Structures are given as C-alpha cells and as structure tokens.
Amino acid sequence: MTYIPIFETPSFDRSIGSMTNPSSMSANQKIPISISGFNHSGITNSSGTLTINANKSVILVASTYMEIQYPGGDAVAVCQWYDVTNSSWIGIPHRKAMSVSSAVNTYAYSNEFSRAILITSSQIEVEYRIKSILEGTSGDLNGFVQSQESNYGEPWFSIISF
C-alpha cells in the first residue's frame, strides 16, 4: 500500500502599510500605524492601535527611518511592539543609533526593523512604540517619518496572520 499525503493549504492574510510620527519623540509614545486602506481578517486598526482577535497566529514586523539634525546631531532610540492589553513589551526590539559631526545635507537616516510573533488565546491590543530614547536631545531627533527627502522610502509595517 502506498500512502500519499495530501497537504492542506493554510488560510492566511497579509497587510503592509505606512506609519506616522508619534505625538512626541519620547519614551512610551505610540508610532501610529496608518489606517488608510487597512483591511485584515481578524485584525482591526483604530488610530494606530491594532486589535487582534482570539485564536490568531500573527507575525508583526515594523521599520522606521530615523531623521536627525545636522551638524552635531546624535540620537539613539529603541522601538518595539507593545501589548497594551497585558502592559508588556513583546518581540524583538531594534536600536537606531546615529551621530553626525558635520554634513553636506540637512538630515541623516537610519533603518532597521523589529518583529513579534503572537499566538492569541484571547483578544488583545498591540501598538508599535518608542521603548526608550537613550541619548541625544529631542531637538536632535526630528522624527521617524522623513520630512526632507523622498528617495529613502517611508516607515512601514507588515502583518501576516494564519
């Protein structure tokens, strides 16, 4: 007798989009996920806060650009996904660090990403936040959305659920 396995294609959904600057460049501030065109099965977006239904497996990824002032600007910021429902940081953070002593342009950019993998047993709310600003002044760190040049892309998020 020959056994031939039949693989079932899992049902999944994916979303990508952009983010906007937080209301202030300080620790614990939400970096809002754009609600424009957001449509994801089992996940809703209200003012940049994601509500994830129970019994979902979700991979969250996000990346922000860091824009700092020249000359002599420096900043170090850590960003990470945050579970609002359980008041805890989730996933792997990323650290953005820049220091510039002189420049040709007005601003500098840095890019990395952080991610979190969730298996929900109940509904939860999550946000993407600034975990800490380790150095620099608020005047040096202009934001995570570029304001001067358009050829560097834009901050983004990606969600895959199944």
CATH class: Mainly Beta
- The count of domains is 1
Number of helices: 0
- Side by side, the strands of the main sheet go 2-3-10-6-7
User: How are helices and strands ordered from N to C?
Assistant: EEEEEEEEEEEE
Which CATH architecture? Sandwich
Average pLDDT metric? 80
Q: How many strands?
A: 12
Distance between the termini: 34 Å
- Ranges where pLDDT stays below 50 over 5 or more residues in a row are none
What proportion of the residues form beta strands (DSSP E)?
Answer: over 45%
CATH topological fold name: Jelly Rolls
Please outline the major beta sheet: 5 strands, antiparallel
Outline type? elongated
Helix percentage range: under 10%
Q: Calculate Rg over CA atoms.
A: 18 Å
Strand-pairing-aware structural class: mainly beta
